[in-house]
Structures are given as structure tokens and as C-alpha cells.
Amino acid sequence: MTQPIPIRRERLLTTALELAAVGVPVLPLRAGKLPFGNCPACTGSACGDRPHMKRAGACACPAPCHGWAAATTDADVLSSLPWAGAWREARAVAYHPGGAGLTVVDLDSPEAAAWARASLPATRTVPTTRGEHWIYQGAMRGANNVRPGVDIKSTMAYARWLGPGTGTMVDLPDAVRALTVKERPAPQHCRAAVSMPASAGGVCRHRTPVYLERGITMAEGRITDARSAVHATVYRVFLAVLSTHGRCGCLTETHVQRLFLAAQAKGESARHCAIAWANARTALGV
User: 153-165 burial, b for 16+ CB within 10 Å, e for fewer?
Assistant: First the structure.
């Protein structure tokens, strides 16, 4: 005879089913905030909690089955017999933020929370044992230790469900996306890859340096403000800058590097910047 799920664990399953009903993929967590392996061969994470960590021959589960990949909105799966043992031992409910179109900024200390209040737009907030979860609408690549006490939990990650929180959820800001962009090489690293247009000679048609500075600043702003199609935006900006400033010889490597750095802050690599610049030069014949 199947043993009944204890009352406290039953509440966890009820919470999981409520979240699943509104499209939030969920899974149970065992002690230590760790996921369960969902077949006998995976008990105690014997073959790892991520699909790519499985040892050959150690697991016969149909993929995906581990960690965040086990999260589901299927009520029948959550309530099925194979999961019953997990819910009896469960200590918490977790969810896959990226699967729900969300991103959790996990602030694991008072200092990290203070940084968020000073640096990020206010959004829905959930208190945690040591800090706060800030939840934004929109998914991105998850990453740990993006700054002291700060993890990003979204795609390919799970977060504990600690309640609905308070405040109005807002769209995922670029400031959060930028946290996972690795530091780029120093400006001189890109110099060899940047081909400057040759001067056409004669008098520069720009009456003052202010005109050029305004143009570069506007170009940086267009890249920074791009919400989508960043690759295409960067290429169009490079075209516009070269068509206006690329033939008179007053465009310097410093100006170009400013554009590269703006693009890299949006996730472009130095290599892609150099390719886009070269393509724009070819298209314009400069």
C-alpha cells in the first residue's frame, strides 16, 4: 500500500500544481536545495544533475530528466507515482525561470541587495534567507557570480519558489543582461583588426570637431538603445558613420573604438565588430 504524502510535503505538491497551472515549470528540491534524480539509477544525483553531466551507461532516463530540465507544467507527471517518493522527501519547490519567460536576479547578501536598489529598476521582489530575489519579465542566459553576491537564474537554471513577492514586475533591463557580458579586451587589442578609411585629401567638410563628436555620440546611443536585432543595428550604425565621416580623414581609431565598445556592451564580440566594420567599408567603397 502506498504511504500517504505527509501534510507538509502535500502542501509543496499543491504549490507545485498551482504554479504549473499558470505555466511555471516546477520540480521538487531535496535537502541542500538540490534536485532529485528521477529514476533509480539517478538517486542521490548518481549521474549528475544536468544532462551533460551524465556518465555513460549510468542512466536510462528518457532525456531530459535532471535538474532544471526536469521542471514541468504537466500535472500528471508531477502527481505520478515515480515522483511520489521525491515529494515525500522534498524540502522545497523550485521552478525554471527561463521556462516561464522570467529572470531572477539572486542577491545573496545585504550588500548585493543594496547594489541592486542603487543600480537596477525596481521590480517584483521576494525576500530570501540571506537577501532577495528580483524577478524580471524576460529570459536570458543564466550565470553565477556575475558580481559579488549576485547570480542570474533564468534559462538552464532553477530557483526556489519562496512566494509571489511584492511589487510590479517590469521588463528585463539591459543593465541585467550586461552582467553576463564578459569583460572585453582593452581597446588596443582591437586595433590590428580595424582598418581605417584612407583620407580623400582636400579640406575636411566638417566645420568643427563638435560635428564629428555629436555624430559619434549619437551612433553610440543608437547601439546602446537597441532592444533587438543588435547585429543588424551595429552594422547599420557602422554604415551611417562611414558614409558621413569615412571619406575625409577626420575619423580616428579612437572614434571607431568607441563604437566597438558600445557594441561589445550589447554582447557583440570584438571579432564580430571588426567583421561588421569591414563589411560596411566594402559596401561603401571606403
Answer: bbebbbbbbeeee
Query: What is the overall mean pLDDT for the chain?
Result: 80
Tell me the sheet residues that pair with 171: 137
Per-residue cell: 20: 504549473
Question: What one-letter code names the amino acid at 53?
Answer: M
Residue 113 backbone phi and psi in degrees, to 5: -65, -40
**Percentages helix, strand, coil for the chain, rounded to the nearest 5?**
45, 15, 40
Phi, psi of 177 (to 5 degrees): -60, -35
- Which amino acid type is present at position 61? C
* Residue carrying C-alpha cell 552594422: 235
Separation CA 115–CA 119 (nearest Å): 6
Question: All 3 cell numbers of residue 197?
Answer: 578609411
- The residues facing 166 across adjacent strands are 125
Q: Whose CA is closest to 193, among 264, 277, 259, 129? A: 277
Please report, to the nearest 10 degrees, the dihedral formed by the alpha carbons of residues 136, 138, 143, 145 taken in order. -20
Amino acid at the residue 134? W
Judge whether 37 and 66 are in contact, CB under 8 Å: yes
- Partners of residue 184 on adjacent β-strands: none
pLDDT digits (tens, 9 = 90+) for 120-141: 999 999 999 999 999 999 998 8
* Distance (Å, whole) CA 207 – CA 98: 51
Give the pairing type, strands 124-127 and 132-137: antiparallel
